[in-house]
Recover the amino acids of this structure.
């Protein structure tokens, strides 16, 4: 495979765009550098790059593309929206229709608001929770990613129940003082944090099923205990379902896990590939938001007809629950096949999978928290990533990301992928 045109475009990109990319994870920093592949066209489960190479895609644009690329029903909806004008700045009936669909699928949301990204959605849930509780601090869990707003770019302190330090330059230490980070899947440190700061905590923010240090499910009873203690402290529970909503079932992780938060942040899949975010929750909490209440949030592009149309069309496709079963079956085949080949070539891996989403960790340990995900072998992953890419399999360039199946992937694709895995593992040094 040749990548000459991608390499030339990356050179050029670096003259104009900071780092050559518009989101840092697109550069191959997580896999030892090199030029990222520049894609030209996507259709179904496939990508074609500027050099003419074809790939089976498991990136799914980091989650939104659950139908596969250029799904005809979504493409038609976007085309129609474009013909009618993409942006009005006035209310439209499409917003009502889509809000109703979301509320029916996620019943913990009495009211919703559309925004333009997951970052905005999470950022605003925190503001609303602060307005509602009249408190300032939040608790979050190590390794969960909640977008790039100041407050959630704060890492864990040195111990479990310590205040945070900024994770990014430009985030003031004064802001980090309002964030406490504790390990996912452990009740004790969370309890400790609440004992120390309980009456100052506005909200507890969590990915109910983690997607950002690989796919990690909550241990039995963990979220129930988090919810109970959060409410006991007079704080609100926010689920960040930007990745999980409509990923595993028609609805959210709340439905799968049978546990409801006070507020939910959404994004990715609900836009059918166009920019979107949304947040919602109990009516008395949501009524804090302007123009009804004192918590301000606005957006020129919010609820735009193009994103609404794409989102509605995407959900219409997903309403057929059998697609989730199909993705589960393909996921199971992929998982079993990868494990078999790892055994054959004596490569140590662990797979976390939930239905059509999975993560391969290069370790022989179980992974249930961020510390364990961090300790997995990044060099092995980087080698694997590059060997897969050269065989036409496009994965996310980071050991922390998931493989996402879509309704467009076929058994043939899985067989081809497993052949590539076999070759990759056979070329990896044993550790
Ligand atoms: N929350 C979660 C759980 C996410 O995975 C992401 C993005 N990866 C975000 C929030 C931020 O969403 P966006 O990139 O649309 O701002």
């Amino acid at each position: 495979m040749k990548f000459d045109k991608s390499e030339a475009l990356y050179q050029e990109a670096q003259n104009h765009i900071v780092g050559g990319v518009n989101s840092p994870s697109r550069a191959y920093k997580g896999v030892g550098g090199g030029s990222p592949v520049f894609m030209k066209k996507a259709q179904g489960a496939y990508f074609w790059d500027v050099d003419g190479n074809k790939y089976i895609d498991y990136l799914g644009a980091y989650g939104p593309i659950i139908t596969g690329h250029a799904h005809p029903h979504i493409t038609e909806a976007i085309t129609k929206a474009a013909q009618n004008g993409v942006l009005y700045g006035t209310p439209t009936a499409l917003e009502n229709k889509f809000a109703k669909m979301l509320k029916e699928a996620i019943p913990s949301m009495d009211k919703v608001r559309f925004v333009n990204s997951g970052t905005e959605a999470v950022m605003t849930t925190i503001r609303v929770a602060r307005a509602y509780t009249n408190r300032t601090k939040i608790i979050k869990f190590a390794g969960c990613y909640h977008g790039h707003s100041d407050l959630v770019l704060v890492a864990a302190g040195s111990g479990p129940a310590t205040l945070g330090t900024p994770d990014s330059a430009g985030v003031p230490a004064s802001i980090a003082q309002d964030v406490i980070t504790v390990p996912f899947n452990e009740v004790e440190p969370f309890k400790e944090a609440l004992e120390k700061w309980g009456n100052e905590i506005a909200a507890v923010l969590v990915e109910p099923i983690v997607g950002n240090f690989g796919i990690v499910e909550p241990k039995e009873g963990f979220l129930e205990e988090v919810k109970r203690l959060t409410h006991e402290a007079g704080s609100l529970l926010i689920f960040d379902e930007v990745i999980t909503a409509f990923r595993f079932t028609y609805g959210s992780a709340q439905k799968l896990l049978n546990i409801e938060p006070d507020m939910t942040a959404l994004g990715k899949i609900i836009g059918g590939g166009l920019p979107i975010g949304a947040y919602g929750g109990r009516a008395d909490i949501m009524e804090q938001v302007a123009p009804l209440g004192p918590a301000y949030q606005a957006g020129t592009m919010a609820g735009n007809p193009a994103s609404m149309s794409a989102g509605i069309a995407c959900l219409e496709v997903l309403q057929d629950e059998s697609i989730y079963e199909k993705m589960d079956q393909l996921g199971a085949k992929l998982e079993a096949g990868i494990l078999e080949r790892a055994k054959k070539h004596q490569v140590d891996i662990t797979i976390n999978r939930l239905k059509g989403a999975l993560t391969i960790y290069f370790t022989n340990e179980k992974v249930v928290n961020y510390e364990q995900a961090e300790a997995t072998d990044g060099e092995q992953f980087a080698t694997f990533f590059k060997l897969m890419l050269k065989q036409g399999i496009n994965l996310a360039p980071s050991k922390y990301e998931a493989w996402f199946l879509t309704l467009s992937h076929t058994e043939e694709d899985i067989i081809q992928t497993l052949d590539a895995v076999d070759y990759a593992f056979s070329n990896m040094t044993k550790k």
